[in-house]
Amino acid sequence: MLKTHPNNPKLGTLRRSSFPVPILVVIGGATATGKSGLALALGKRLKGGIISADSRQIYREFDIGTAKPSASERKWVPHYLIDVCDPTSTMTLAEFQLAAQYCIHQLHQQGEVPLLVGGTGLYIDAVVRGLKIPPVTPQEVLRSQFTDLGQRHSYGLLNSIDPAAAAQIHPNDAVRTQRALEVFYVTGKPISKLQGENPPDYPILYLGLDADMDRLEVRIAKRTRQMLEQGLVAEVAELAERYGWDLSLMQTLGYREIGQYLRGRISLAEAERLTIQSTRQFAKRQRTWFYNRAKVRWFDADAPDLVDQVWADVQDFINQVASVE
Q1: Which CATH architecture has domain 140-194?
Q2: What residue ranges of the chain are covered by domains with CATH 1.10.20.140?
Q3: Which of 193, 279, 288, 322 is most buried, judged by most C-beta within 10 A?
Q4: Per-residue H/E/C for the chain
Q5: pTM, whole model, 2 decimals?
Q6: How far apart are CA 186 and CA 161, in angstroms?
Q7: Other CB atoms closer than 10 Å to residue 260's CB: what's the count?
Q8: Which CATH code of 3.40.50.150, 3.40.50.300, 1.10.3720.10, 2.40.50.140 fits the domain covering 9-131+198-324?
Q9: For 205-244, what is each residue's pLDDT tens digit?
């Protein structure tokens, strides 16, 4: 049995198998498209391990509202990068990349197939494209100063010190503007000079699940209802008592809306409606992100023979890779 990650023993251990070709299978797509279910089906057939690419599932205690795999599902197929951070901590993109690369390497060493699965597109890009990420942690004081300065002036400042970066950032994108500025002020170098890509050398099969927005909204509504039935209100109440309402995770999808209900600002029915609405808007942005990714093999999330379709594609990919080896 392999040891855990040297810098994070909570990443879990890896088991033995005997898959001969080192590959990576990626499953991306908008929320509620069924990525986790497909990953479980493939993971069982491949005897692989699932690496979560979800920016909220990395945090402990936030379970129902983030649609984490159940304990029994995690027994069927090993999962990694779930429950690895305390809610009061932050895992940076660079830390996620390093942890995911470690898991992939270890699974390859064991002859297993890693499946990178999730809807956080930047997490997937960090691994698939091998993004070079400036090693600068979030600078809260700097960010507050940029916020006070205002987005228009902050963007103008960025354009003066790093026009190449500004050309790649929308003038209204405060998050990326502030990130580019903080990197410059911490390192003294433009972020455009520090960024780049170093893609991995193993073959990657990038699968995408999709459904049109009408069908996706039905899926989102169904999952929201299931979360409420599973105890989302109680989960939010317990987390609020433990961490307070100002915790950043409490302002994310589902937790924000249920929090409004618990504080008497809206009804539970309205909280459910707003959760569905916000999740739909989020899913629409995700679809745009993933559509702009090259070499994604798309599948209809509602296809009755989805697993068989994808499995055939995976087998073809494996055979192609094996024939080149």
Answers
A1: Orthogonal Bundle (1.10)
A2: 140-194
A3: 279
A4: CCCCECCEHHHCCCCCCCCCCCCEEEEEECCCCCHHHHHHHHHHHHCCEEEECCCCCCECCCCHHHCCCCHHHHHHCCEECCCCECCCCCCCHHHHHHHHHHHHHHHHHCCCCEEEECCCHHHHHHHHCCECCCCCCCCHHHHHHHHHHCHHHHHHHHHHHCHHHHHCCCCCCHHHHHHHHHHHHHHCCCHHHHCCECCCCCCEEEEEEECCHHHHHHHHHHHHHHHHHHCHHHHHHHHHHHHCCCCHHHHCCCHHHHHHHHCCCCCHHHHHHHHHHHHHHHHHHHHHHHHCCCCEEEEECCCCCHHHHHHHHHHHHHHHHHHHC
A5: 0.86
A6: 13
A7: 16
A8: 3.40.50.300
A9: 999 999 999 999 999 999 999 999 999 999 999 999 999 9
Task: Give me the mean pLDDT over the 17-30 stretch.
Answer: 81
Residues in the chain: 325
**Residue 201 CB contacts under 8 Å (≥ 6 apart), including other chains:** none
243-298 residue pLDDT tens: 999 999 999 999 999 999 999 999 999 999 999 999 999 999 999 999 998 889 99
Q: Which residues pair with 25 in a beta bridge?
A: 115, 205
The tokens for 241 are: 């008592």
Distance CA 312, CA 325 (A): 20
Half-sphere exposure in the Cβ direction for 259 (13 Å, CA) = 19
The packing angle between helices 213-230 and 232-243, to 10°, is: 70
